Amino acid sequence: MTRIEELPDDPVRSLNLNSEPSASDLPSQSLHALNQTPSHESATSPGLSPAAISQSTPFPLPPTSNSDGALTTTPPLPPQMASVKSHTVDEVVSMIHRTPLFMTSLDADTAADNPELDAMRALLYEGTRAEIAQGFRERGNEMAKAKKWADGKELYSKGLAALGVERKEGEANGEAEDRKEVEIEEACYINRALCNLELKNYRSTILDCASTLRLNPVNIKAHYRTSLAQISLQNLPAAILSTNEGLALSPQNGPLLALLAKITSLQASLAATERKRLDREARTKQEQLVLKAALIARGIRLRTTAQPPEMEDAAIRLVPDPVSPTSTLTFPVLLLYPEHGQSDFIKGVGEAETLGEHLGYLLPLPWDGKGEYTVKGVDGYMESAKGGLVKVGKKVELLRVLEGAGGVVADGVVRISVVPRGRAGAWVEEMKRRKGAAG
């Protein structure tokens, strides 16, 4: 049956829901409550201390006050929400990044005055030596699986360091604990060897594998990784030795058999390369001996200066066969035009060729505006062995100029100065004057 609410006894008194209640309309207890300043602690967590509430919020709560004594009926936010609302976005992001779970980097500012981080660091060294080392080993394994080799190497090193400290007072001791530590130490060494191998620290890889074999001489991975490091160092004899030692323990080991085949192939390839190098050196030496004999037989004089020119691969050669004394000698030739400071370089001029043959396709010159440089209108000169000048006939073979006229080859290059015939006499006199002044 529906309950019927009775009307108030005083029909004159009415309620106005749109107006603020007056002090006379409220009981004394309610009036006392409104005059009290609300706080997060009293409104949401009666009976809890401020320290307890601060620990239950994600971010620190600011101090609250109501110094103006204003009357307010707005209910306070719960502490968790208030701790977020009381900070700016940048402050919240900064505080989140100081939380170990959400850290993206670790610098001095982040690590300073960070109790949570200090607590997590302390946990790393809680327990026995074996437990601490095992923790670093497991985290190193995670880094290795993620191919973060440098981080893995550091964690394995910390695990090994943990096994080197003295046991704590009252820590478990005995044969079982010793075996456990040796197992962890072996795993840290062989896994650190893998990290060093991937980081191309080949000598460190070999040392870690040696430490592994000291603890367990039948560790196949140690022999395998030692061989890989020796191959990278191109020490194939040592690589074969390590591989054979591993195969002696496990003759049908597939990776070791494949590695042995690879080393054998590399040895054959290196041997072939070495033979080619020795053959090349022997031929080069033979070419130099034959060339020297050819120059001496033809009476060609050579001279070196303090500043030889850059000629790339241009050189005196015997062609077509460099090791045949009957081949033709060819010389690099530099044609100088001293009157105009110009030059032409010919990479190879045969001993039977003449100056005129080459002037025939070089002249006229593009910078010769007066037309002074023609085959018939120029003369050639080159330095003699005594420091003078030798005239080079345009129809005379180069070999005759070099062997009979006294021409000299300086720094492996034949230098011929080309001068217009009308000014040749004056140029020769000027060169003599300069030579005499220098002498």
Structure write-up:
It is a single chain. With 439 residues, this protein is α/β, with parallel strands linked by helices. It contains 17 helices and eight strands. The chain has helices at 28-34, 40-44, 50-56, 79-85, 89-97, 108-111, 115-124, 129-145, 149-164, 175-198, 202-215, 220-232, 236-249, 254-298, 355-362, 398-403, 421-438; strands spanning 301-303, 317-319, 328-337, 342-350, 378-383, 389-392, 408-410, 414-420. Strands 2, 3, 4, 5, 6 and 8 form a six-stranded mixed sheet that branches. Strands 1-7 form a two-stranded parallel ribbon. Helix 8 (129-145) packs parallel to helix 10 (175-198), helix 10 (175-198) packs antiparallel against helix 11 (202-215) and helix 12 runs antiparallel to helix 13. The N and C termini lie far apart (143 Å). The relative contact order is 0.04.
Short account of what is shown:
With 439 residues, this protein is of the alpha/beta class. Helix content is 51%, strand content 10%. It contains 17 helices and 8 strands.
